[in-house]
Design brief:
single chain, alpha/beta, seven-stranded mixed beta sheet, 18% strand, binds ligand PGD
């Protein structure tokens, strides 16, 4: 049996087909492999695979058009040679009647790790070369708020977060880590494109052994690994900015702020200080003020601020904090707090965005480029901030304020999605369903019958990563992997590339899409810039065939100091790419936008859905809808590792013992989690690891809706039935799916069991 090298977003591995299962062996160089690898074992032959091109019955019978039956209709299977002309005809109709500006091809999603079969790049290249373009999406669900604010105040997210060897410095140098939102190792297990060495836990435990102090602010104890014995401050969710302001108050009023650093490297300190001390609004942001909002003891904050000024301190802000209303503020205030300590740019100190939240953040940038697929040129300029998808579909012609611009939503007639699962990633799924009822046609490429596939008119079976050759590479990961086919494509699955090549062919534009290359030629072509850069550096630069034969190569890291360190070393010759060239504690640009929900300096805004607000009278529990530890997002939810985390076939919901006692609930109870937007069922786990007033349930359970008295209930535990679909603020319009208010009751009436992974009803084709 031959084990072949391969890679995934959660780790490099080798694999072989053993009977009808896949045996998976983690890469030997990985010090801490992810158990998520186990989910691959039964995936290729799983019953939820899409087996043939499937057309929604209502679409075949009635033709394109808005339809509320999406999500409940049956499907008719066709052969590929019947399907391709039908789809080409519909694309031609939409192109002729409306043009590509009515096609949404933003197609957000993580798909699989390989660089060539990256589904989003494939669909973009197809729409650009065969149709002339598409309405695109900007930013990510992971970091929408940070992506928008950081360029204004310090520099682009990737340049700031993905340059330095922070994990190495943490192990050797950092004395105090102040982690807002924690550094959850479950999230560091994953990195888009692959992570061949999981170093987060080994680095943190090395720091702990050396005596480093870890302080965490989070409503969940396990947002920090138990190994580092962090001091746990269980603040009310959504109050981290207030806590940071309380710490800043101590630094400023006790003369602990590093004025020399602030004068040389920052602009706007005085304006921020006026807000912190209350000079500008009459409210001093004292530790007592912060305690009243956050529930964290003022004396503890005072002690911490003094320690931060005295020791080599790293301030980290997790992705989760900015995936919430006003999510821009904790990122900006985290930068400001680190600036006050004067440690930005020092080894092991300063600010890090999302250290511990994504596997490859905190590693040195690479010194050579990694392969990318040329997506061609998009002839359509319209775009949406990625998390505004439902608004786009529901409100054609409406306008949206975004980062100093005003966007107008086009009237979308056709949606093309490959490599993502909006019925996993988007908020308020009843609203999304209403949005999905509006276009004329929705086309999805999927491997499995996800809820997104079940809401499409045309579902085309795509191969999964194990069924094809590719190149595995990721920013900040020094291994490039020759990802080799482990099993033949199952059932009728075809590669996204092949599907698009045939569709482009049916539209008369095959060569424009394929570039006249075979898949193998594409891999060699995409590999070449890496090889050339290795050769230019005088490194071992194997040919593509040699690389393929070897199975992997090691890539060098960059030697330049990176954006922030370069700036700190020489602010005059290496200014930051901000308007002032310095760190902006006050931004004239942002102030100039005149937004009521984002001021010229970091500020605490009271959110709508938080435990200190009026709505908590109706829905008294704050749901933390965070990333799962047992799978990546919704991917391979049926896999053995994901299934082992379920209770009674549903997603577990954790609740503090006092909240459980008030509701007379116990571990194992089936509970209904609800608010005015919808409901989901979960199995209760009573736990001291969540703060009182907070419940936690992970994202990613496949949406399995039943309708009851006009309410959509997911019987499997999909949290996005209840999350709120609003942008973080006008600045970023990012995803706010992390937190919302709910209540929880025992589910008394029995609920019919549904198989979340079953294919929809496949009907016979009626021939006249
Ligand atoms: P995945 O489950 O990874 O979720 O959202 P995303 O849509 O990325 O979906 C990827 C899909 O691609 C899977 O269905 C998989 O089968 C399919 N796929 C994989 N490989 C291929 C391929 O080669 N070809 C094709 N055609 N398909 C493929 C993730 C998003 O969810 C993210 S990044 C974040 S950070 C958000 N987090 C939260 C959150 O914290 N809280 C809430 N409430 N909601 C969130 N949603 C967001």
């Amino acid at each position: 049996m031959t084990y072949k090298p391969h890679s995934s977003h959660w780790g490099a591995f080798s694999a072989a087909a053993v009977g009808d299962r896949i045996d998976v062996v983690p890469h030997p160089d990985d010090p801490c492999p992810s158990p998520i690898l186990d989910n691959l074992r039964d995936a290729p032959g799983h019953r939820s695979r899409v087996r043939k091109p499937a057309f929604r019955k209502g679409w075949l019978d009635g033709g394109p058009g808005p339809d509320t039956r999406r999500g409940s209709d049956g499907y008719v299977e066709l052969e590929w040679d019947e399907a391709i002309p039908l789809i080409a005809a519909e694309l031609t109709r939409v192109e002729r009647e409306y043009g590509p500006g009515r096609v949404f091809g933003g197609s957000y999603g993580w798909s699989s790790a390989g660089r060539f079969h990256h589904a989003q790049s494939q669909v973009h290249r197809f729409l650009n070369t065969a149709l002339g373009g598409y309405v695109s999406s900007y930013g990510t669900y992971s970091a929408g708020a940070a992506q928008a604010i950081m360029p204004h105040v310090i520099g682009g997210l990737d340049k700031v977060a993905r340059t330095d060897d922070l994990w190495g410095e943490l192990a050797t140098t950092t004395e105090l880590v102040v982690a807002f939102g924690g550094m959850p190792v479950r999230n560091a297990m994953v990195s888009a494109g692959g992570v061949s060495r999981h170093v987060a836990l080994p680095s943190m435990t090395a720091a702990h052994r050396r005596g480093a102090r870890f302080v965490m602010f989070s409503p969940l104890r396990d947002d920090m690994p138990a190994e580092v014995e962090a001091e746990w401050h269980a603040n009310l969710p959504l109050t981290d900015t207030a806590i940071m302001l309380g710490l800043a108050h101590v630094l400023i009023t006790e003369g602990l702020a590093d004025r020399a650093f602030l004068d040389r490297y920052c602009v706007g300190f005085d304006r921020l200080a006026d807000y912190v001390t209350g000079k500008s609004d009459g409210v001093a942001k004292t530790p007592e003020w912060a305690e009243e909002i956050s529930g964290i003891d003022a004396d503890a904050l005072r002690e911490l601020a003094r320690a931060m000024a005295a020791r080599r301190t790293l301030v980290t802000v997790s992705n989760s904090l900015q995936r919430a209303e006003f999510g821009e503020q904790p990122v900006w205030m985290g930068i400001a707090l680190a600036a006050l300590t004067g440690q930005i740019g020092q080894p092991g100190g300063g600010f890090s965005y999302s250290l511990g939240a994504i596997g490859n953040v905190g590693k040195r940038a690479l010194g050579v480029p990694i392969p990318t697929l040329n997506q061609g040129k998009n002839g359509v300029g319209d775009f949406i901030p990625v998390a505004r998808i439902t608004d786009l579909l529901l409100n054609p012609g409406a306008t949206l304020e975004f980062n100093g611009k005003v966007l107008t939503y086009p009237d979308i007639r056709l949606v093309y999605w490959a490599g993502g699962n909006p019925f996993h990633h988007h908020q308020d799924l009843s609203r999304l369903r209403a949005g999905f009822a509006r276009p004329d046609t929705i086309i999805v490429h999927e491997q499995f019958w996800t809820a997104t596939a079940r809401h499409a008119d045309i579902v085309l079976p795509a191969t999964m990563t194990l069924e094809r050759d590719d190149i595995g590479a990721s920013q900040n990961d020094t291994k490039m992997i020759a990802m080799k086919q482990v099993v033949a494509p199952q059932a009728g699955a075809r590669d996204d590339f092949e599907i698009f090549a045939d569709l482009a062919g049916a539209l008369g534009r095959r060569d424009a899409f394929t570039g006249g290359r075979t898949q193998r030629e594409w891999l060699a072509e995409m590999y070449e810039p890496t090889r050339a850069a290795l050769a230019a550096l005088g490194r071992n630069a194997p040919s593509f065939e040699e690389f393929w034969e070897q199975g992997e190569i090691e890539l060098p890291t960059a030697t330049d100091p990176g954006l922030v360190r370069g700036f700190v070393q020489s602010p005059e010759t290496a200014p930051l790419p901000t308007p002032s060239g310095r760190i902006e504690l006050f931004s004239d640009t942002i102030a100039g936008f005149g937004y009521a929900d984002c001021a010229g300096h970091p500020k605490w805004f009271e959110p709508v859905e938080w435990l200190g607000g009026a709505l908590a009278g109706t829905y008294p529990l704050q749901l933390v809808a965070n990333q799962p530890s047992t799978r990546l997002h919704s991917q391979l939810d049926f896999g053995s590792n994901s299934q082992a985390g379920k209770r009674d076939g549903r997603e577990p919901l954790r609740m503090h013992p006092k909240d459980a006692a008030t509701r007379k609930l116990a571990t194992g109870d089936t509970v209904r989690v609800f608010n005015g937007r919808g409901a989901f069922l979960a199995t209760l786990v009573v736990s001291e690891d969540v703060r009182q007033g907070v419940v936690q349930c992970s994202t990613g359970a496949w949406f399995t809706p039943v309708e009851e008295d006009g309410t959509t209930i997911c019987v499997h535990g999909n949290v996005n039935t209840v999350t709120r679909d609003v942008g973080t603020s006008r600045l970023a319009q990012g995803c706010t799916g992390q937190l919302c208010l709910v209540d929880v009751v025992r589910q008394v009436t029995p609920v019919a069991r549904r198989d979340p992974y079953a294919a929809p009803k496949i009907e016979e084709l009626q021939t006249a």
